[in-house]
Amino acid sequence: MARSSYFKPNDPPAGKAGASGVSERSTRQAWESFVSSGRSDEARPRNVREPVLDHLWVEWAFSLPSSLQPEPKAILRAVLARHVPVELWSRPKKGFAVPLADWLRGPLRDWGQSLMDGRLQDVPILDSPEVRRLWEAHVSGKTSFSAAIWPVLMLLAWLEARDPGRL
Predict the structure, then answer these.
(1) What is the pTM of this model?
(2) Beta carbons of 143 and 101 less than 8 angstroms apart
(3) Which residue did the predictor score with more confidence, 105 or 122?
């Protein structure tokens, strides 16, 4: 289920002008930035959400003069450095590849085969003989077509979830 359908509320929280110095406008801008970064975070593999959303912490942070406001996460990094050696967390991000090709030849092979056998003909926009050729070449180990096969399997699994028992 996509979170974007319920991620953005109808209205941002109402701000209060006063001792904290936070106005309606700055609260609205901060909220819109939060919503925008959340959507961006969903679309790309990165983490941009605020680490703490406690209202007291946010009010304190807004009360700081702009000259004292550090770059994002600087305070958290400074605290982390007191407790964890810097070389353990201060390094470039490393991604990892999901071993999808091996899974489709191993533990997911029967599942994929049952979807191919039971649902492939239900999708008229797919060239069934070509999809079967790619599947057979992939599971035989001749080459990897996992990137092309996986979306087809997801479509077939979605069809099965909507209309179970057709396999």
Answers:
(1) 0.47
(2) no
(3) 105
